[in-house]
Design a protein that fits this description.
This protein has helices at about 15-25, 55-65, 90-120, 130-135, 140-160, 175-180, 185-195, 200-215, and strands at about 5-10, 30-35, 45, 70-75, 120-125, 165-170, 225. By secondary structure, it is of the alpha/beta class. It has a single domain, classed as Rossmann fold, CATH 3.40.50.
């Protein structure tokens, strides 16, 4: 029996890498994408720039040729360009929207072609708690992650009759290379605001993604699933 194929965008490190590893451990043939530099070692990898429809098309063509049709799509690729709103340029705003929101749309739109033929599948978007509660200095990032919710729910309504689910996973503060660079005072402040009193591990995010990718989650669609230690309190 051939393994079902899972695609994880932006999986060369952090949350994306952990998701790819967890899906592989759960029995999926996992394919990851990277934008620049070297492909992640030990993984099936293709180059993809989610800000380019041509690049997304070329990557999917390569995946379908080499492996088959991906039925689990994890749209994880994204960027940040943090700045206080008075100093945020048009480019800083539009670049983040293009990568995080429009990029996820490009990937999901192209994936839908194969999912409709399969008459099954999972669209899983990696959002953020700040998409619901906001964050100073992240007007662009918060807007992009908030937009994923409306988009995912529209996919859910449009594609549900074909057995395709669409959900958003919303992490809180996660232990990654990025958060490791925070000043200790800021880390203490963040932890104090989280009811569970700690940062999340990348594995905890990955395990929730693996659950949504599984048959156990076949009746969950259009959901915003927080993995934030209670920081967002369901918003």
């Amino acid at each position: 029996m051939t393994k079902p194929i899972a695609l994880v965008t932006g999986a060369n490190r952090g949350i994306g890498k952990a998701i790819a590893e967890e899906l592989a451990a759960q029995g999926f043939l996992t394919v990851v994408t990277y934008r620049t530099g070297q492909a992640p070692s030990g993984m099936n990898a293709v180059q993809m720039d989610v800000t380019s429809s041509e690049s997304v098309e070329a990557a999917f063509a390569e995946i379908e040729d080499k492996f088959g049709t991906p039925e689990i799509i994890v749209a994880n690729a994204g960027i940040t360009k943090d700045s206080l709103v008075m100093r945020m340029s048009d480019a800083d705003f539009s670049d983040v929207i293009d990568a995080n929101l429009t990029g996820a749309f490009r990937v999901a739109r192209r994936a839908t072609r194969g999912l409709l033929k399969l008459r099954r599948g999972r669209l899983i978007f990696i959002g953020s708690v700040v998409g619901s509660v906001g964050s100073p200095g992240q007007v662009n990032y918060s807007a992009s992650k908030s937009g994923l919710v409306g988009m995912a729910r529209s996919f859910a309504r449009e594609l549900g009759s074909r057995g395709i689910t669409s959900n958003v996973i919303a992490p809180g503060f996660v232990e990654t290379d990025m958060t490791a660079e925070l000043e200790e005072k800021r880390r203490v402040e963040i932890v104090a605001s989280v009811p569970l009193g700690r940062f999340c591990s990348v594995k905890e995010i990955a395990e929730v993604v693996a659950f949504i990718a599984s048959e156990k989650a076949s009746y969950i669609t259009g959901a915003l699933i927080p993995v934030d230690g209670g920081l967002g309190m369901g918003h």
